[in-house]
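FORM 7B - TANDEM STRUCTURE REPORT

SECTION 1: FIRST PROTEIN
SEQUENCE AND C-ALPHA CELLS:
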Amino acid sequence: MTRSLALALCVLAPMVVSAQPARARRPATATGFSAERLARIDRALQARVDDGSIAGAVGLVLRDGAVVYERAVGWSDKEAGRQMTPDAIFRIASQSKAITSTAIMMLVEEGRIALGDPVSRFIPAYARTTVAVTADSIVPARRAITIFDLLTHTAGISYGTDAKVSARYQAQGLGPAAGFGWYTADKDEGVCTTMERLATLPFVSQPGAAFVYGYNTDILGCVVEKVSGLSLDEFVRTKITEPLGMRDTHFFLPRDKAPRLSAVYKSGPDGRAVRAEDGARGQGHYLDGPRRNFAGGAGLLSTARDYGRFLQMLLNGGTLDGTRLLSPKTIDVMSTDQLGGLYGNTGMGFGLGFSVAQRAGADGFASQGTYGWGGAYATVYKIDPKERLVIVFMIQMLPNQSDIRDKFPTLVYQALVEPRR
C-alpha cells in the first residue's frame, strides 16, 4: 500500500441521519455549504496527519438532519496499519455526560425525580456531606446537594485532584488513583459502590457556591440505577441508544467490535502523536476490564454517526425518526444557561449538562444559543439551533496538544455560506 493511498481520506456520500439506509447524495450547496470551502477541512485534517500531530480523526456535520460533511482521515491504529473509517469507535469520556443527563431528565419527565430533590433521597450516603476548607480543615456542607446541583456542576464536587483533598481521594481509589481523576472503567465494583464511597470524602466547595467540574454526572448515573431499578448500562441501552438506532454506543465494547476501536495517542515532547500506554491513562479497560463500573460521566464509547443521531434528537426537540425521548420544553431548559455568572467563562453559560453560548463570538463562530461539550480524549460536539447544525469531531489524543479539535468547528462555520436569517 502506498503512503498516499494509506493516508487517503475516506469519503462517504451525504445521507439523512436515520435508522434507514443512506439516501441519495445531496450537493453541499443544497444545504447552504460551499463545497470548495468544505474542502478546506479536508486539507486541514490531512495536514495534521502528515505532520504527525494526530494519528487520525473523523469529522461529521449535519444540517437539518442531512449529512453535509463526513470524513475519516489517517489511522485508527497506525502501528497495526489500520486506516481510520467513518464507523471507527471512540472513547468519548465526558461526552457521556449528555447521555446520562438525558436519562435523568427522562426520569424527571416521568415524575420519578425532581430537579430540587436532595440526592440523599436516592443515595442516603449523601445526607451529610463535608467540604474541605484546607487539607486539615473539614467542615459540614451548609445544605443538601440536589439533582440540579449535579446537573449544573455546582455541588462542589471535583475529580479529587485538588491539593487540599487529593491524598484522601488517592487512599479511596479516586482522584490521582483514577487515571486523570475521572476514570473508573478498571474498578471491579458497581458505580453506586464507588459513588457511595465518594460521599464519605470532603468536597471542595459549598453546594451552590461555584461551578466545580467533577464526579457529578457519575453520581447521577447511580441515581438512574436507584430510581429505575436497572443498571445504567441497561437503562441507556434500552431507553436511549437502541430506540435511537445507536448500534455502536456502549460502556464496554463487545469483543466482535474490537477491530473498530481507535487506538489512543498522546502528544509527545515534539508535538507529534505517539501511542499512549495501556491502562487508565491510555488505552483503558474497555475491552478487557471487569465491565462492572458504568461511569455516567466518562465511560461510554461511540461513533461519530451514533453520537450524531443522539445530538440530532436533541436538536429536533427530543425526537428522532418517530421516537421521542424528551419534550421540546425539557430540551429548552437543558440548553438554557442556569448559572448566571457562576460558570465564569465570558459570554458562556451552563445548562443542565451542556455549556451554552450566550452571544455570537463567545464560542468561536457558533451562534448564540449553541450548546455542547467535549471529552478528555479530545472529542468535541456542538448543537447550533439557529443554523440547525450538529457538529461532531472524534479523535483519540490524551493528553492533546494538537490545535485541530478547537479549529474544526471554525472550519465548519467558514464553509456555511447561506446562514439562517
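SECTION 2: SECOND PROTEIN
SEQUENCE AND C-ALPHA CELLS:
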Amino acid sequence: MLYDIIIIGGGPAGITAGIYAKRAGKNVAIIERFMPGGQLNLIGEIENYTGFKKIEGADLAMKFYEHALEFDIPFITDEVVDLELKGDIKKIIGKSKTYQSYSVILALGSHARELKIEGETKFKGQGVSYCALCDGNFFKNKSVAIVGSGDSAFSDAIYLANICSQIYILTKEQLKLHNYTENELEKYKNIKLLKGALANKIIGDSQVKQLIYMKDGKEKSLDVKGVFVAIGRTPDTSILINKINLSSKGFVLSDEFMKTSEEGVFACGDIREGNIKQISCAVGEGALAGTEASKYVSIKKMKIKN
C-alpha cells in the first residue's frame, strides 16, 4: 500500500502530525515500536501541560491515542530499521515489512542520558528525574541534587531555586557553560556548587534518601529527596545517519516549517535541534509538520499526475 504520509513515532508530536494530516484529507499511518503515546507512558504525574492541572503520563498518552482513533488513523506496531528517503516514493523498512509513502514525518523522539550508577534504575519516578521542569514541584521545600556540568544543570538549578529548600549541583572540575557563568549562582543562597564531585550511588527505601558521591578521593553523602540527572539527551536518530543532515549531537536539522535536508521529509518533536523537549512544543511542531507534509504531498501528486 502506498500512503500519502507515514509518521515514524507515535508520541505527542507524531500523533498530532497524524491528526493534522488526516484532517487535510491525506492517507496517513503512524509507525510506533513501543505503544501509542511513546515516552508519555513512562512519565508519572504531569503538571505543566495546558488544560490539565494534573494528569498521569499514561492517561495523557491514552487521550492522544483516542483522539487519533477518532480520525481512523492506523497505528502500526513495528520497529523501523532503515529508510530510503530519496526520490518521489519513500521506503520505510521495518522489522515486519516495508512501507511506502510520498512523504515521511520523523517523530522518533529522544531519551535522557543516564548516570549508570547503582540505585538510578530502582528510583526512577521515586526521586530520580530527568526533567526539572516536569517534576520540580514534587520536591517543594525539599533538598535535591542535580548532576551535570553544563547549561542544563545550571538552568535546572535556577528553576528549582524557587521551589526546593536546597539544591546541590555535582559537576566535573571543568564546566561546559555557554549560556551561563559560574558566578550567576551566587545570588541564589540555596544553591551549592560541588565541583569535582562524582555521583556514585543513590540509596533509600521507597524513595530517595541519599546521594553518595566521591570528591577529592573521599566518599561523601548528601541527604536529598530527589536526584535530577542533567547530562544531556540522546536523539533516537541512529538510522538517519548519512540520510539527512544532523547536528554534531545527532539532532535533526530542519527549518521553521519542519523541513529537513531531504525533500518530502519533515521532523518534529524531541529529535529536532532546538526543541525544548516539552509536550507542548512537540504538539505545536507536530501540527506544523502534518500541515506542511500535506501541502507537499498535494503538490507532488499533482506533478506526478501531469
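SECTION 3: OBSERVATIONS ON SECOND PROTEIN
The CA atoms of residues 90 and 229 lie 38 Å apart.
The two ends are 22 Å apart (CA to CA).

SECTION 4: SIGNATURE
Preparer initials: ____
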